[in-house]
């Protein structure tokens, strides 16, 4: 796959803004500034999965997924996906609940996800095009319409929700397809102790937004969940390329 991910030169962003955004506010201080808005470097076209990738969502095939119980029906057993299924995408059906991969497919490797918020804008802040990507063992990566939409920095698109704001805001407009490329290195664990934390790097629309952020979680493989946050957000073309030493012939999800 020929793809050139664009690195935003951090020198072009005020160093004080980056430092404050990463450290977070102290008692009595104002919160971190909003990330600088930059141009997206993704044209909205589906990105072809590389050889060896596991196809988690492609076309109408949702066999890799289960519907989890909704808040309205907490005792409901997992069942086939209730979200709207179209030719090449899934759309959240509000109050249906989140969906989850059947397998703990996400080890160390490259996770690619394409998503779009509603073209007709309704609401503002956290009420506008809200969903989330939940990789087991890691904080939620926020999905939100952050194009000309102000909210708290660690709640906007590409933030680790309530944990770590993105370096910049590379959002495309409402209704346009966007991409996340999430590079995961699970923690190194020796005798049940973490000797090296997990790290996650995220590109939003081919722009670096999270750079090797560390998380002290020992989990080596987990599920992928997509959130129902009452907004009809769309998802398509989800694939995961494990690192060579992580590939398993036992997975029921085939390349």
Question: What does this protein look like?
Answer:
With 255 residues, the protein is mainly beta. The protein is 4% helix and 30% strand. It contains 1 helix and 17 strands. Strands 2, 4, 5, 7, 11, 14, 15 and 17 form an 8-stranded antiparallel sheet that branches. The chain has a 5-stranded antiparallel sheet with strand order 3-6-16-8-9, with no helix packed on it. The chain has a two-stranded parallel sheet with strand order 1-10. A hairpin with a 2-residue loop joins strand 12 and strand 13. The longest helix is centred in the N-terminal third of the chain and has 9 residues, at 15-23. The protein is globular.
Q: How much is the average pLDDT?
A: 86
Q: Rg from C-alpha positions?
A: 18 Å
Q: What percent of residues are in strands?
A: 25-35%
| Straight-line distance between termini | 15 Å
User: What is the element string, with H for helices and E for strands?
Assistant: HEEEEEEEEEEEEEEEEE
SS element count, helices: 1
Q: What is the overall shape? A: globular
Question: What low-confidence regions span 5 or more consecutive residues with pLDDT below 50?
Answer: 1-28, 248-255
Strand segment count: 17
Which range best describes the helical content: under 10%, 10-25%, 25-40%, 40-55%, 55-70% or over 70%? under 10%
At the fourth CATH level, what is the homologous superfamily? Exo-inulinase, domain 1
CATH class group: Mainly Beta
Overall CATH architecture: Sandwich
Q: How many independent structural domains?
A: 1
What would the CATH topology be?
Jelly Rolls
Overall SS class: mainly beta
User: What profile does the largest beta sheet have?
Assistant: 8 strands, antiparallel
């Amino acid at each position: 796959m020929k793809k050139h991910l664009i690195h935003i030169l951090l020198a072009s962003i005020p160093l004080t803004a980056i430092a404050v955004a990463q450290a977070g506010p102290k008692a009595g201080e104002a919160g971190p500034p909003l990330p600088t808005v930059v141009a997206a470097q993704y044209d909205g076209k589906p990105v072809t999965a590389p050889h060896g990738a596991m196809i988690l969502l492609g076309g109408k095939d949702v066999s890799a997924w289960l519907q989890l119980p909704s808040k309205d029906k907490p005792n409901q057993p997992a069942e086939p996906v209730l979200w709207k299924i179209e030719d090449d995408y899934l759309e959240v059906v509000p109050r249906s609940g989140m969906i989850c991969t059947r397998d703990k497919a996400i080890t160390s490797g490259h996770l690619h996800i394409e998503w779009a918020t509603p073209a007709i804008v309704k609401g503002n802040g956290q009420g506008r095009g809200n969903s989330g990507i939940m990789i087991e063992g890691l904080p939620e990566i926020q999905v939100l319409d952050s194009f000309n939409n102000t909210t708290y920095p660690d709640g906007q698109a590409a933030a680790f929700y309530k944990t770590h704001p993105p370096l910049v805001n590379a959002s495309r407009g409402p209704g346009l397809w966007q991409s996340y490329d999430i590079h995961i290195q699970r923690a190194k664990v020796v005798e049940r102790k973490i000797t090296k934390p997990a790290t996650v790097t995220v590109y939003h629309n081919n722009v670096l937004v999270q750079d090797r952020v560390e998380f002290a979680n020992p989990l080596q493989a987990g599920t992928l969940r997509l959130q129902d946050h009452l907004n009809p957000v769309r998802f398509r073309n989800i694939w995961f390329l494990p690192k060579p030493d992580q590939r398993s012939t036992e997975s029921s999800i085939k390349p």
